[in-house]
Amino acid sequence: MTDQLSIEAINEMVTEQFPGTGNRCVELGDGYAVAAYEVTPADIRPGGFVSGPCQFALADCALWFLAFVALERIEPMALTSELSIRYLRPAVGDRVLCRADLEAVSRRSVVGTAHVWIDGKPDKITAAAQGTYAIPLTH
Amino acid sequence: MTDQLSIEAINEMVTEQFPGTGNRCVELGDGYAVAAYEVTPADIRPGGFVSGPCQFALADCALWFLAFVALERIEPMALTSELSIRYLRPAVGDRVLCRADLEAVSRRSVVGTAHVWIDGKPDKITAAAQGTYAIPLTH
Amino acid sequence: MTDQLSIEAINEMVTEQFPGTGNRCVELGDGYAVAAYEVTPADIRPGGFVSGPCQFALADCALWFLAFVALERIEPMALTSELSIRYLRPAVGDRVLCRADLEAVSRRSVVGTAHVWIDGKPDKITAAAQGTYAIPLTH
Amino acid sequence: MTDQLSIEAINEMVTEQFPGTGNRCVELGDGYAVAAYEVTPADIRPGGFVSGPCQFALADCALWFLAFVALERIEPMALTSELSIRYLRPAVGDRVLCRADLEAVSRRSVVGTAHVWIDGKPDKITAAAQGTYAIPLTH
Question: What's the CA gap between D109 and D80, in Å, rounded?
């Protein structure tokens, strides 16, 4: 990690530029990033489960942080071009985590795989996702 | 549409059982459903765009309503098993719409394709999605 | 369609540059392309069904032709960046068709939705797909 | 692995029931399976690359073998319900490998993540995929 690319710097950017999201960076490493989210009552779906879109949003955010890792800089304008998600089991709990692992980075895009789980139950993956972030083209 | 399966009945169920979502049903037809969402400041991403997860949540909801159409009943426990989304262009506006069209329904699942756009700009699709809803197995 | 972009010109290119594929262009129109494939015994899976990868290959090819339509030129180096497919019902028959419809084209990519069916049964879609073709970047 | 579920038993079933495929099982383990494919001239796309559908077919097959691992039996009628793939870099070589790892197994389905690479270059993943196999419902 460079000085510029720290958990604190990422969360400062997120808080300033995208205050509406509750997703935060909690870990960065070589080829991966972890994001966390505190579940609110608004995220609960019929049956008492953490909603699918809430898990999707967290996976999307973890992949955004992963793009910063791959690019070795905070690049807010890296944008999701596509993302697919599979829900594996009911998610019940107060805090959700997601780890995104780097598959590849090119001049155009960053591809990663993400796994979502309820805090304390890392062996019970609730969703698996894979997606692509587009890197802004330079001129 | 059966009496039981009306826009009003769906929105009543959504309001009661999933009060956290702002997505509402606005149209139902043979093999399709349309959902709408009023954008809030919390949904705005860096650059001023309606966030990807916000569009995903709307597509997910439109496909849920589509599952009701396919099953000819309101079935809150129909659950997304997988969903993939592609973002096509920046989404800027106050109200987002999504139409989900039925691809197939079987004993196990409902598959549909969804298109998202900003209200008033139906020719500028901002996201295209495709996904599967699992139907609860009866015994 | 321009003079350069005809069914015949596409199939000539395919035959020359990619002789291994049995997929051929059979129709081109404003925002869409149709590809066809004659099933061989090698494509039959346990149960007597046309294999999933065979349908995937046809969808991939139809989207390639769609990229030519979107770019208004034959561009063999347009490459699939991602593709997702859902299988809807068993496919049994001798000839498979796939229509790809344009969702969006940008400087970087072409996105389309594709539907596969057995010749003569256009109302029984056997697979639905959605994917992205990367356009070679010019300098 | 049970006695019944061996590399040899799988490849015998594949050879008998699906002779058209060149994909073979080369490794089985706790929660994973590896498949291999010898590239033929018919698989080469413009530019000299192993075609996308060829890599997709291998990933699909590795996930099929993974379903056998998850079910602890050879179940030829386990069928792909959906699969998404991302191509990460050009694939050039004579033999392609794919490892599929188990994400989850339920009564209805098996979900896995797959990575494709050219033999000898395991650090250069050429494609990443994720998908779902439907388990035949018992009565």
Answer: 9
| Whole-number Å distance between alpha carbons of D51 and A39 | 43
Chains touching chain D through at least 3 C-beta pairs below 8 angstroms are A, B, C
Give the pLDDT confidence score for residue D4 in this predicted structure: 78
Mean per-residue pLDDT for D7-14?
Answer: 97
CB contact set of B22 (below 8 Å; sequence gap of 6+)? B37, B38, B40
**CA-based nearest residue in chain A for residue D131:** A86
Chain C residues touching residue B111 (CB < 8 angstroms): 86, 88, 128
Nearest CA in chain B to D108: B108
Q: Encode pLDDT of A107-124 as tens digits.
A: 999 999 999 999 999 999
CB-CB neighbors (< 8 A) of D65 in chain C: none
Q: How far is C113 from chain A (nearest CA, A)?
A: 14
Q: DSSP assignment of D58-100, as one string? A: HHHHHHHHHHHHHHTS--TT-EEEEEEEEE-S---SSEEEEEE
User: Rounded CA gap, D104 and D8, in Å?
Assistant: 25
C1, pLDDT greater than 90: no
| Structure-token pair, residue B35 | 């959902």
Encode pLDDT of D51-101 as tens digits.
999 999 999 999 999 999 999 999 999 999 999 999 999 999 999 999 999
List the subunits that have 3+ CB pairs under 8 angstroms with C.
Answer: A, B, D
What is chain B's length? 139
Give the residue numbers in C contacting B (CB under 8 Å), as ranges: 84, 86, 88-89, 103-104, 106, 111, 113, 115, 125, 128-130, 132
Give the pLDDT score at A3.
55
CA–CA separation, A11 and A6 (whole Å): 9
DSSP codes, D10-21: HHHHHHHH-TT-
Q: What strands lie across the sheet with D95-105, from one edge to the other?
A: C24-29, C32-38, C95-105, C109-118, C127-134, C79-87, D79-87, D127-134, D109-118, D95-105, D32-38, D24-29
- State yes or no: ipTM above 0.90: yes
Residues of B with CB under 8 A from a CB of C: 84, 86, 88-89, 103-104, 106, 111, 113, 115, 125, 128-130, 132
Q: How many CB atoms lie within 10 A of CB B134?
A: 19
Amino acid at C75: E
Report the C-alpha gap between A37 and A21 in whole angstroms: 9
Q: How many CB pairs under 8 A join B and D?
A: 17
Residues of B in Cβ contact (< 8 Å) with C106? 88-89
Cβ neighbours of A82 in C, within 8 Å: 82, 132
Taking a C-beta distance cutoff of 8 angstroms, is the pair A69, A104 a contact? no
* DSSP designation for B42: G
> Residue D31 gets which letter from DSSP?
T
pLDDT digits (tens, 9 = 90+) for C9-60: 999 999 999 888 999 999 999 999 999 999 999 999 888 899 999 999 999 9
Smallest CA–CA distance, residue A9 to chain B, in Å, is 16
